[in-house]
Amino acid sequence: MSSLSVVIPTYNRKDILQRTLEGLAAQSAWADIDEILVIDDGSTDGTNRLVADYTRCSRVPVRSFRQSNLGQAAARNVGIREAQSSILLFLDDDIVPSPALVTEHLAWHDRHPEPHMGVLGFVTWAPEVRATPFMEWLGLDGPLWAYAHFKPGSRLDFHAFYTCNLIRRQRSRPILDGAQKSERDLNQEPGENPLERRSRSSFCCIKAPHGFARPTALVSLSRLL
Description:
This protein has 225 residues and is α/β, with parallel strands linked by helices. The chain has one domain (4-224): Spore Coat Polysaccharide Biosynthesis Protein SpsA, Chain A (Alpha-Beta Complex), CATH 3.90.550. It has helices spanning 14-25, 47-57, 72-82, 101-111, 133-140, 194-202, 221-224; strands at 4-10, 33-40, 62-66, 87-91, 95-97, 117-120, 155-156, 165-169, 204-207, 213-215. α2 links the parallel β2 and β3. α1 packs parallel to α2.
């Protein structure tokens, strides 16, 4: 089976980020994680201390980077540029991976090794969140995610490029032009990763039936407006 680098952009979410890191440490396939890259987008809540403490005791190599609040897209670009593995697993900093997430992702990726292929993992609300009906809709059939429309194993287009739980192969390095620039400096949609922009013409995604991750943040309509 292949191995991968995990890329996590983060900003002022150290308590939830800790659960994300603990979930990676508890992976059944933790030995297939080459490294965890945490890109701090200018946090002021002690994220740097948390990552430093975790790095000292982690059985998986952890590398941390810091930038001056340039946005998640720019933070992911740092991870893409610095990653040592040719396979990247993108996770958000509020996603708690299930123990089999890496195993499932790599198994699907090994079955579909084409360079233009990615694998989208399922995301659902953590039980302790007690998701409201609005949140359930938002995560299955709303503007946040549209998992209700994706069949396991189906091929998807760039609209399903959800970087909260997605694996993708790098074709070469460096893969992006302007990788150090902020998202506002790039000719792209707000918040759009240039890897996503390139994927409009080259990306095909297969939804894995497993590889669950659980966001832990409460969401309301007012928070989205």
